[in-house]
Design brief:
By secondary structure, the chain is an alpha/beta fold. The protein has 13 helices and 12 strands.
């Protein structure tokens, strides 16, 4: 009975959730520091290939020197070279822990930091031309880009303020961040930028769905990439991450290690939904953010906030996410009967 039920879930996930919708997604990422951003971006490109979503732009919170080349290389590898990239113009840096350079060194790219537009201007350009309430913004890094968008004023793209544009054009935010119902110091809510998350959550007037730390930390993927073509961004990026990430390198034995799927869960929800199948959407409250990465869920009626609570097994979720990252939708097998 368990096998039959989970097989039914699998079929429902891939062939029913998006029968009537194709989300238009802007992806805001701090790619390079954790491999989950790379996995999430691979998912989005595979969804685009299937016609499950539109990827309107990739916005970079990170100012790593090789972030733009890496994302451009990934876009080209997945045959989507025209996806716009926006970057935060706060100067660049290098980090030997980040896997962006290894991707840029091994795959073709044409764009660098100076070649792409400033992120808020690109946000405003895309939102100005969009239909009302048509855009889903998925954030999988700290929220400074969103704060700056909210604070932006009229420009050549629109007479609306950033806050007005968001309220008019955005259907939903999917935010990977925080911990529910309570957390002390989650990276995306901290970002070494005190007060940013608090400002954003207090000033967004559209629905927000949170995919919290407690969700992705239970779902481990990555080791399966040891068996794929090594001349792929997933292999190169995850291998380098396993060897160099401060919290991974002590366990590294020359093979890709499993890692948490924080960002992949946000993308999975944004495209596939899955409420009452994969997770419950907890409502009836709002996320109150502190100044330095902490948060708590506060009960309130008529709130536009909600968060996801896992109801499927982590093992099933891992297989599901791996199938999407590898564009092997037909390969997934239901969990063994217990």
């Amino acid at each position: 009975m368990k096998k039959l039920f989970t097989a039914t879930i699998f079929i429902f996930v891939f062939y029913t959730f998006n029968s009537f919708s194709q989300p238009k997604i802007i992806f805001d990422t701090d790619i390079g520091g954790d491999a989950d951003d790379l996995g999430a971006l691979a998912m989005l490109h595979n969804y685009v290939k299937r016609g499950d979503c539109e990827l309107l732009a990739i916005m970079l919170w990170t100012t790593d020197e090789f972030a733009v080349p890496a994302v451009d290389a990934i876009n080209r590898f997945y045959l989507n070279p025209n996806v716009p990239i926006g970057s935060r113009k706060d100067g660049t840096y290098r980090s030997k822990d980040n896997y962006n350079q290894i991707i840029a060194d091994n795959f073709e790219y044409k764009l660098t930091y100076s070649d792409v537009p400033e992120v808020v201007g690109l946000y405003r350009k895309i939102l100005a031309s969009a239909a009302d309430t048509s855009i889903t913004i998925v954030t999988v890094g700290p929220l400074l880009n969103i704060q700056r968008l909210i604070q932006s004023g009229a420009d050549k793209h629109s007479t609306l303020s950033g806050s007005e544009m968001i309220s008019k054009k955005v259907k939903e935010f999917v935010i990977m961040g925080g911990q529910f119902p309570k957390g002390e110091n989650e990276w995306n809510f901290n970002g070494n930028m005190p007060g940013v998350t608090k400002f954003v959550l207090e000033n967004l007037k559209v629905p927000i769905v949170f995919s919290g730390y407690e969700l992705g930390v239970k779902i481990k993927t990555g080791a399966t990439f040891n068996n794929i073509d090594p001349e792929t961004p997933l292999y190169k990026g995850f291998l380098y991450f396993s060897e160099h990430a401060p919290w991974m390198k002590d366990q590294f034995k020359g093979k890709i290690l499993n890692n948490s799927t924080f960002d992949q869960t946000a993308v999975l929800y944004a495209v596939n939904g899955g409420v009452d199948v994969l997770w419950e959407k907890v409502t009836g409250g709002y996320c109150e953010a502190g100044d330095n990465g902490g948060n708590r869920w506060v009960k309130r009626k008529n709130s536009s906030h909600s968060y996801l609570k896992l109801i499927e097994t982590p093992e099933f979720m891992a297989a599901l996410i791996e199938a999407i990252m590898l564009n092997r939708f037909e390969d997934i097998a239901p969990p063994e009967e217990e």
